[in-house]
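PROTOCOL LOG
Step 1. Enter all chains and additional molecules of the complex.
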Amino acid sequence: MDNHVTSGRRSFRPTKRRLIQLYSALLHNAHLRGFISGEIYQGKAKYACAPGLNCYSCPGAAGACPLGALQNALASSGHRAGWYVMGILLLFGITFGRTVCGWLCPFGLIQELMYRIPTCKLRKSRVTRALSRLKYVILAVFVVFIPLWYGLKHDIPVPGFCKYICPAGTFEGAGGLLSNPGNKGLFSLLGVLFTGKFIILVIIGLASIFCYRSFCRFLCPLGAIYGLFNRFCLVGVRVDETRCNGCGACVRSCGMDVRQAGDPECIHCAKCVDTCARKAISFKAGKVQLKGPEAALCGSGQTRDRKNRWIARGLALAVLCFALVWFNVLDPSVRNMQARPAAEAAVFESSAPVGNDVGMQLEDFRVTCLDGSEFRLADCRGKVTIINLWATYCAPCVQELPYFSRLYKEHEGDLAVLAVHSGVVTDDPAEYAADKDWAMPVAVDTDGRIFQIVGAGAALPQTIVLNRRGEVVYNEAGSVTEEMLTALCERASRES
Amino acid sequence: MHFGETDMDKKKLVRTAQSVLCVIIAVMLITAALGICREGLALKAADPLNRIYTREKVAAALRPVLPLFVISVVLTVIGLIAGIREEHEEKTVHKETGMAKGQRSFEKNDAKPVRLRTLRAVLFLLAAGLIAAGALNGSARDVFSKAVQICSECIGLG
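Step 2. Run joint prediction.
Step 3. Record the structure below.
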């Protein structure tokens, strides 16, 4: 009975690897206030890519997703080469290889926790080994080919893997945003694409319950990239060939589809270090042994080792505390978010109060357009007015802008349209707009004032339709169809 | 609560019940999503301003799944307390024997350390060079601009 109690308690005690995984997940998602406010972090730390698969549209994400960044870099390779992302991936690859998957990736942790659900399990076999090659196909088709094809051929950024497959995006990004009551407007965006991705998420979730790390093993293109560096990365599992008798115990006890410890399928979880009876396997960072047979020191070595461990733990804790304070309190972007003024309740000649919700009168603004003309909202009284928020790097934005242009051409006397580019600029919007030959005026919201007036969130595109009195008839983020636009204009015209 | 060695049947029962529950929950979620989508598309065809998904529809669809989810959580807790675990023993070992693999890697890695260190150093330098070039050519700015906006398409919102 005593033994049972002890083993039961032991099964609850987290391993060092699990603690590091939790620590890493917390660091990846250090912007905890985002889960409460429903807004994503917009500070400078997002210049840096995080090593693991963690969607940058997750409200908690403190860094950029390397896979999403790579796809966007490939999509815009017609304009400039994505050296930065490639350098980052190379740096993570050569330093950690797939140690990222085993120790740092938040999505890997989620899968491991799901696998703990006690169900019948699918064991690894030749079929799973064959399936483990699928991730290289996904890498080639969805991460490389689709973004390159759409980017170079059509000049539209389409991140193929994010758009059609990525379960981390659906779970962390869409799930994180939609579950917040403040983002109920985002439900208007959901459609066929969401249904497809939700089904993929459920299937991958189910597979993770029955099959160990099924997404990592069969589908994850980031794991495929890191796997290429596995044999020569700095941190990872090493086999001492002088001790190894080739019994294969390490391979049999491993949950991944490895053929030998440290091969491209190995996530360097270091479980095999304990399995090896010959003490031939160790987990090292360069020459420093992190786990292995020689780690058992005696005398002064043991004391020094213990001291080093306490220093490392203290440092890790300090880093975590600093990150949590920085990303939730001190970061200038977070402070700006807190200081954002509420819509004024002043009343103009119309009886509607000033604001950006449906039924309210939109505050007046003026902006100089890219063609040099000036657009003033108050001058549009008497016309139905459409304001569209867009960006060159937003594929749905670029795809829907021709509808606005056509509508503007057809009803120019009776309709005012303004396309406002986000203040965050990558390609020159003037050059871009000139290329596309759009009829309506285009402006750049350099100081973010228009975005603030219309109540723009972080999601693009966003369309605002005003009736002839300047009152908001429609104000939602998400793509619109030509039919929707026509129907909205008719409604705005009727309400005037 | 613990199952002894003679209680293998109980463990099997918990595992089987949990497996069936998980599959049922997944099927219900998929069916609900397809149902909402189909119904929403029909509504949208009638009036383009109608929404496909609404909070109310999603809540109504999740209601029948909730009791099953609670049962599944309870079973999971029971399983964890009972220490039901799965080891990763594979059915068949790869055709090549472990001994042969050991010998092969021993032969292959003979003159490794020096070449490995050089390769790592070159790749580290290359990575640093690429990051610096990226910071200069504006590709770091591209990463930032994409990461600070919600990419509705990327996360499957549409």
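Step 4. Note key features.
Confidence is low (pLDDT under 50) at residues 1-6, 341-348 of chain A.
Residues 366-495 of chain A form a domain with the Glutaredoxin fold (CATH 3.40.30.10).
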